[in-house]
Design goal:
Blueprint (H helix, E strand, L loop, with lengths): L8 E3 L16 H10 L9 E3 L5 E3 L8 E6 L6 H20 L5 E6 L7 H10 L7 E4 L6 H7 L4 E4 L2 E5 L1 E5 L5 E6 L5 H13 L8 H12 L1 E4 L4 E4 L1 H36 L1
Parallel strand pairs: 4-5, 5-6
Antiparallel strand pairs: 1-8, 2-3, 4-9, 7-8, 9-10, 11-12
Helix pairs in contact: 2-5
Length: 270
């Protein structure tokens, strides 16, 4: 199913005609597969630069859970909005787990534009002053490998980038354990995952319903060029609801048919 989907893939515009991105949008199915394929894996120990230009290795964040997002500073709509949403979630989660319970990093993938100085300005514009949240700049040569390691898909377009909107949850040993999708961060999902990681409880795999919800987030929200925002595509929701209703109807029909045949056979025996 190929469509412009705004919850998983952000069609971030930078002044170009909104329809210019239609032919270069990421493939939803392939982006989903790439994102899910890295679960349980540990990204390589890349060296990035912090906002002061100092080198930081990914391994420096081990020992605590870590939330990882990818952004680019030239985005004027989706990246700022999703970062603010993550900021709200982080503040709530710090109130629950403590300020030192976990770390957060946002990685600028548009190199060399996403320099330490650009990321510093971006963080200041979003009013993020959380000590446990760092904005990091990778080398241009390492961006593709770094993105693959985190299951992050992106594609350059005439207007900027189409890219996956996800927060990767990494455990204290550096392994990716959950991908959380959407331009509005699911605080409850992050909180549940962090609770399991911090308590040492076995991490429960998402059930069929949670996986379905993730797929709906992946596909059912589209960019509305008229308003410059994202809206729910109710046609897909109705398609999914219709499919579920049809399946349930067939199940009920089969059950009623089975009961009728059972009563008929009992009547013959009597």
């Amino acid at each position: 199913m190929r469509r412009l989907f705004g919850v998983l893939v952000a069609l971030t515009l930078a002044g170009a005609h909104p329809h210019a991105l239609a032919d270069s949008a990421l493939d939803a199915t392939e982006a989903w597969k790439a994102s899910q394929a890295v679960l349980g894996q540990r990204p390589a120990d890349y060296t990035l630069l912090d906002r002061n230009g100092q080198p930081v290795r990914l391994s420096a964040f081990r020992g605590k859970p870590l939330l990882v997002s990818f952004i680019y500073t030239g985005c004027f709509q989706v990246c700022p909005a999703s970062t603010r949403s993550l900021h709200e979630a982080v503040q709530l989660l710090q109130g629950r787990f403590g300020a030192d319970g976990f770390n957060v990093i946002s990685i600028g993938f548009n190199q060399p534009a996403d320099s330490p100085q650009a990321l510093k300005a971006f963080a200041a514009q979003q009013r993020i002053d959380i000590a446990q949240w760092e904005f990091l700049s990778p080398s241009a040569a390492s961006v593709d490998a770094l993105a693959r390691d985190f299951g992050f898909s992106y594609r350059a377009t005439p207007a900027g980038f189409d890219h996956v909107l996800q927060v990767s949850v990494v455990d204290a040993d550096g392994r990716i354990v959950r991908q959380v999708y959407g331009d509005r961060v699911a605080t409850d999902t992050l909180g549940e995952t962090l609770q399991q990681l911090l308590s040492g409880a076995p991490l429960a795999a998402p059930g069929p319903l949670a996986s379905l919800i993730d797929r709906v987030r992946l596909l059912c929200t589209v960019y509305d060029p008229a308003t410059g925002t994202y809206r729910v595509d109710y046609s897909l929701v109705l398609e999914i609801a219709g499919g579920i209703t049809f399946a349930l109807s067939m199940l009920v029909y089969a059950l009623l048919e089975w009961r009728a045949r059972r009563h008929w056979r009992r009547g013959l025996r009597a």
